[in-house]
Each structure stands twice: as C-alpha cells, then as structure tokens.
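Quick check before the chapter quiz. The format below is the same one you will see on the exam, so make sure you can read both the input and the output lines.
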Amino acid sequence: MAADAPSRPSGRIDIWFSLSARGSTYGREIRGGLVTFFTMAYIVVLNPLIIGTSKDMNGLYVGGTDNMIKAITMVTAATALVAGLMTILMGAIGRFPIAVAAGLGLNGFVAFTLAPRMTWADAMGLVVLEGVLILILALTGFRSAVFTAVPEPLKYAIGVGIGLFITIIGLVDAGVVRTGVPLVSFGVAGELQGWPIFTFCAGLFITIVLVVRKVMGAILIGIVATTVLAIAIEAFVGIGGRSITNEDGWGLNVPVLPESVLAVPDLGLLGQFSLFGSFEVIGVLASLLAIFSLMLSDFFDTMGTAFGLATEADLIDDEGRIPHFESILVVDSIAAAAGGAASVSSNTAYVESASGIAEGARTGVASLVTGALFLVAMFFSPLVTIIPYEAASPALVVVGFLMMTQIRHIDFSDYSIGIPAFLTIVIMPFTYSITNGIGAGFVSWLVIKIFTGKASEVNWLMWVISLAFLAYFGIYPIELVLGLK
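Here is the expected output.
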C-alpha cells in the first residue's frame, strides 16, 4: 500500500480525528498544515505593523517612550503565541482543518477606531467582552441555529465570495492589482513590471501546472520554489522592500537569509487589558455599540469561513451540516477573547486554511501542525520573515479558483436567489469583508421575499439577523441620532 493512501482506523487518534473516515492520511494532514502556515504566516509580521504602531501602545507598554520597534516585537511574539495555541485547540476540539489568528479588519477597527477613543487596554477589554458574549451564544446553540436557518444558495454564495476574496488578497498582496487612484489599477501604471511581479507570475504558473498535473504537495512545492526564486533574485539584483519611492519592491518581507534564525520572544503583553475601562471613558451605550460591531463581524466571519472550507473539503453531510460545528464555534469564540486578553486583537478562523485543504487536509491534525509551527515561529521569527507576499500569493489565487467552483450549485436563472447570491459574492472582495458580503446577501434576500409576497417563507432567525445587519450597516446614523458622534 502506498504510504499516502487512506487506510482503516488504526487507533484512538485516528478515530478521534476521523482520519481514515475522511479518506486522509497523516502525510496529507502534515502537508496541509504546512501549506496553511506558509500562506498565513504573514499575520505574524502584519498584525504587529497594524497593532504595534498604535501611539497608545507605544506609550503604554514601553514605559512611556516612543519605542515602536519594541512594541512591534512584543506584538509579534503574542500574535504567534495566541495563533498557535488557538489553532491547536481548534484542531484538538474542533477536529477541523481551520487555522486561527488575529483577524485582519478587526485589528484595524480596534487600532484606528476604538483605541484613539480610549487606552489600548480599554479597547482590548471590549474585545474580551465580545469574545465572552459570542462564546455564550455558541454554548447555547444560537450560532449553530443561525447557520441552519441560512438558505442553501446563500451558503454556497458565501463560499464563492470567500474564493474571490482570497484571490483579490493574493493579487493585491503581490502588487498585480493596486488600489488608489484610479480605484483599481493593473500593476504599476497599467503594466506588470519589476522582478517581484515576475516572481509572482512565475510562482503562479508553477503552482497552476503542479495542481493541474495533480502533483502531490503542489501548493507547498509552489510556495517553497517561489521563495527560493525570490531569494536568488534579491541576492543578485538587490531590489529592497516596496514603498512609495520603490513601487517595484518586494511586498511585506524582503527575501534575504537572516544573520540569525533565533529570537527570544517577549510576552509582556499577556493580560494587559481593562475589562470595563471603556465604559468609564466613552460611556456604556457607546461601549455596547462597539461590542455589537465586533460581535457581528466575528459571529458571521467564522460561520461563512467554516461553511466555505467544509464545502471545499467535501465534508458537508446530506443535511447540510458541518461535523463538530458547535465545537468549531466554541473554540473560535474562545480565540476572540484570548486575542483581547493577550492584547493582539480578536482571533478568528482564517480563509487561508483553504490552501491546506486544497493540499489534502481534512482533519484537525492539520491544525495541530499549523499551530505548532506558529509556536515555533515565536523563536524562529527571522525565518518567517523570509517569505515575501509574491511567494505566498500564488497559492491564494489558485485556491480562490478551487473555491469558485462552488458557484455551480447556485441557480442564477431565479433572480430571487441569484441577486442575493451575487451581492454576497461581489461585496466580500470589493469591501475586504466577509461580514459585509453576508449582510448584503441576507438583507437583500429578506427584502425580495417581503416584496414578492413570500415573507412567511423566511425563518424567524433570518428576520432577526437581517435586522441586525441593517443596524450594523446603519451604525453611523444611529450614533449620530444618539449623540455619540
């Protein structure tokens, strides 16, 4: 029997993770876990650049000095620690190949919207409270019930939207698509130029060929091969990092072998939060609205991500359910609170986990591998910073295509289905928000049902959720009316 071929259950670990039952092997899970880590390891570098540059964080945690580098170093260590522990917990309890880390979008909301109105510790207290509240909703079964109430076409639309979303992430990270004026541009001045773009294109075609030929480990091989190419190009050409004066530079990391591969992590941020400090600073009502905004994003991001990934992994049962879904939601809720408690913002499920699933991951064993690598990254952070966006992004583009294939399940000839599905799909990538896409789909679904005389067909939970999204989208005028702006 081939070493990578599925076999009968061979022990308690196999049975617990349903390894053989899902047609997987330890080899596939290890490869999947490696690929997921490499495609989302950027968060260890990117989250500190968002969180660590907060003026309040520099003053609060670095003894009143403006030592940004030390703040960034501390956030790096805490980001890797929480991501590692929560991903391992997701693997062990959720038993699903989903990795967890500090949520992009949420960290920006916390750093640039909440933190300026209070101390960083106060803002982290709101994140902890939000995590506790969605944990209660998960334990009571409410989150799972909401998922069941969502119409099947919208569930598939969420998966397709996520596929487009991670494709856009990959193209923007690589510099192929750029935002600004005009709103979206192709490359630099309408052209693909520079060695980093060449590296991305080469990596994309390498990965595409490997995937089409069904080469085992295709995505992982693509990432490693593209990184080696990037290191070689930088060594000979000396391009440097991307900046305003160097538009053709590398994105995120410059692929240079570090002088040292070890770094001692500074975990001084752990426990630095004030649970109810914001209530005194901005008031109870404003604090509750902030918690509501955080909750709505966390609540639906994971639901959408889990369904999209489960569909891609072919793990949806005949009744449209995800295995161990309640456990997945519980761990995700704990991760949200843990991120706040560690001062690195809310942690949530990552759509980049789709890359590991495309590599063959089907169980929580892959998440154990990804989580362990995050913990190792605390000590080997110089190695993590070798991989530029251009080397990891080809994997996201290819995985985006794989997730897009779910669109075949949506009947676009029925406009009452097609329009909400369409809005779900397009708004996710264009607003960089899974939550916004889900909200647009839900609200439009409800409106169409009401004005076609089919309101009685709408599940009562869909009414509640859609009205909640209306409040979410209208949060600015609501705050104006309440005198909070």
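If your answer matched, good. The first helix runs from residue 12 to 17.
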